[in-house]
Amino acid sequence: MTAPLLDIDDLHVTIPTDRGDLHALRGAGLRLESGKTLCLVGESGCGKSLTAMSLMGLLPRKARQSAGRFALMGTDYAGKAPKAWANLRGRDMAMIFQDPNQSLNPTMTVGVQMTEALRHFEKLSKAQAEDRAIAMLDRVGIADPRSRLGQYPHQFSGGQRQRLMIASALIGRPKLLIADEPTTALDVTIQAQILQVIAELQDELGLGLLLITHDLGVAAAIADDVAVMYAGRVIETGPVAQLFAVPAHPYTQGLMVAIPVPGRTRPGTPLPAISGRVPGLIGGVTGCAFRDRCALAGDGCASDPLPRHAFASGGFVECTRPSLSETRP
Amino acid sequence: MLSFLLRRLVVALGVAVAVSALSFALIFLTGDPAIAIAGSGGSAGDAEAIRLAYGFDRPIVVQYADWIGSALTGDFGQSIYFNIPVSEIIGNRIPVTLTLGMLAFLAALAIALPLGVAAAMRPNGFIDRFALVLAVSGQAVPSFWLGLMAIVVFGVWYGLVPISGTETWQGYILPVLVLAYSAIPELMRITRSGMIEVLNTDYIRSAQAKGLPTGRVILVHALRNAVLPLISLSAVQLGILLSGSIVIESVFAVNGLGRLAWESLLRSDLPVVQAIILILSLFYVVLTTAADLLNAWLDPRLRGGAA
After folding, report:
1. pLDDT at B275 over 50
2. How many CB pairs under 8 A join A and B?
3. Membrane-spanning regions, if any (chain B) (predicted)?
4. Strand spans (E) along chain A
């Protein structure tokens, strides 16, 4: 069996603050196979974006990181110099961000921004690099690409800018694409188009896609696997169909019932929300971080480490009393 | 870009006309020039004779048209005090002040720009703290005192440079450095704050995510955006430096425009004062226009018009 594209285990990130160390990632883990899509879901502040930044080697300077395993394509970089991992950036892995309107340099032409990495890494000539950029722009659905290379970002619409970001990220033919809420800043009608473009290119290029989203609808639509993150840890993961059909962690269940379903959710009735708040992560948390909000919480929930139940169909849940009444293989 | 260029030049021309009219009118606002020329010992008859001789009796619009028409050909009239053409006096002073001002500006920029960038890369780091100390002392230490100290230490004690005058190039060293020192703080702080702001933007994160070398991220992606406010400020700072510093020129006995303006005011040498005001204000018009054009060249969003 070949090694997974991305294999992260026991990832810790600590950010020093005035009030003490913020233990933002507390042993997070991820696995992604080539050509597959892993959706990382969770509420704001759970560490999704920080995980992406850690993967890209773009953590804030004062952040401290450690990992049990930090591997891309079978090579483990845990414990190696950060420089070795940073060298993968832009070649083996690329990233697109939430707000395409802020993510392009307003003072540089689209052509330069798309080709500069190619010219740097692959030592292509200007003409060669521009040919690649034109092909890529055409691929993501920008009309008349040749003439648009000389234009500036403000001459493109929001949806077009995200297409530019996608083209710019994929022009170097990376193996892994990290997309951090790539459609959140866009109109709903544009969102589907952008996801469509990403999915098509993923097939063509055999990309592994790590999609960060808080939109479970998006996850259901395009994920192969889903990882649910809570307070800096992945608490449940598994193939999308199984996880959505039989969510095992009380938190995952809470997320699921909070989605309005046309026909089933009666208008006027409040959606069930998960009560309580995410615990503060300064100074760290032991045991289950969800136990204060959990209706099922009991004595064992403060134990550390928590028991982990693996499913035969892949994935796991980290909970002392997971709901396993319905059979999830 | 071309239409922006034309629009900006038309505006500049308008400003230049308004400024020249104002500088001309200022002379009449300060009192009757004929009486001023006649001096304290002059009689009413003398003043009347002078008024006729200089054409002060004509309508002010005619006088302005006459003056600006001559000025455009480089003729600013005769100095009342020296009784030689104003253009000759000013012509001797301008190169001195321009040399001093330009060198001081370049020296200030050469220090402020890299220091501001380095300070922004690690706010509150060692370089940032050092730069802050330099900025505060640059603003707090008066330049006449610094100039005198520099003369004492480097001119008198060590004899490295001439203590006054600009007959040799060595004479420029101290005034340039002292003048630059006063211009550094503002230039550096605007570089630092602009750079800090830009380094926190999403597009810098995108550039880093592409795997570009740090040098390219900082010097191409970030600096291009961070220098926009610096350029606008530089136009003003350079204008101040080119106007000639009365203090610096006096301390170092430099025969520049600043001292000439000051002395001419004391001597009521109106044609000289008028000419200097006009020339200096035109400096500002040219500099701010150049800064706007440079900014528009760097930032396409500023060009407006057809997007």
Report:
1. yes
2. 76
3. 94-118, 130-157, 169-188, 226-252, 272-294
4. 6-17, 20-32, 37-41, 64-66, 69-72, 75-76, 93-96, 176-180, 208-213, 225-230, 233-239, 308-310, 316-318
Q: Please name the member of A97, A104, A117 whose beta carbon is closest to the beta carbon of B211.
A: A117
pLDDT per residue over A171-224, tens digit each? 999 999 999 999 888 888 888 889 999 999 999 999 999 999 988 888 988 999
Domain boundaries, chain B: 93-303
Please give the mean pLDDT across all residues of chain B. Answer: 87
Structure tokens belonging to residue A96? 């697109």
pLDDT at A325: 54
Q: Give me the pLDDT at residue B304, please.
A: 67
Convert the pLDDT of each residue in A91-105 to its tens digit.
899 999 988 889 999
- Find the helix or strand (DSSP H, E) in which B169 lies: none
**Residue A271 per-residue DSSP state:** P
Distance in Å, alpha carbon of A166 to nearest chain B alpha carbon: 11
What CATH code is assigned to A6-33+46-92+218-318? 3.40.50.300
The rounded distance, in Å, linking the Cα atoms of A188 and A174 is 28
CB atoms within 10 A of CB A271: 9
pLDDT value at B72 more than 50? yes
**Residue A120: its chain B contacts at CB < 8 A?**
211-213, 216
CB A243 within 8 A of CB A236: yes
**Considering only alpha carbons, which residue of chain A is nearest residue B224?**
A107
Nearest by CB: B299 against A107, A120, A172: A107
pLDDT, position A38: 95
Q: Judge whether A84 is closer than 8 Å to chain B, CB to CB.
A: no
The candidate with the shortest Cα–Cα distance to A140, out of A211, A206, A192, A196, is A196
Asked if B126 reaches chain A (Cβ–Cβ under 8 Å), the answer is no
Contact A154, A122 (CB under 8 A): no
CB B198 within 8 A of CB B204: yes
For residue A261, report the phi and psi dihedrals to the nearest 5 degrees: -115, 120
| CB contact A121 to B (< 8 Å) | yes
Q: What is residue B106's predicted lDDT score, i.e. its pLDDT?
A: 96
CATH architecture of B93-303: Orthogonal Bundle (1.10)
pLDDT at B306: 42
Q: Which amino acid is at B281?
A: S
Helix B2-29 to helix B60-72 angle, to the nearest 10 degrees? 130
Is B211's CB within 8 Å of A121's CB?
yes
- B212 — contact with chain A (CB < 8 Å)? yes
Beta-bridge partners for A179? A96, A211
Strand partners, A75: A72
Does B189 touch chain A if contact means CB atoms closer than 8 Å? no
* CB of A60 closer than 8 Å to CB of A146: no
Q: Taking Cα atoms as reference points, which of A86, A211, A101 lies closest to residue A164?
A: A101
**pLDDT surpasses 70 at B183:** yes
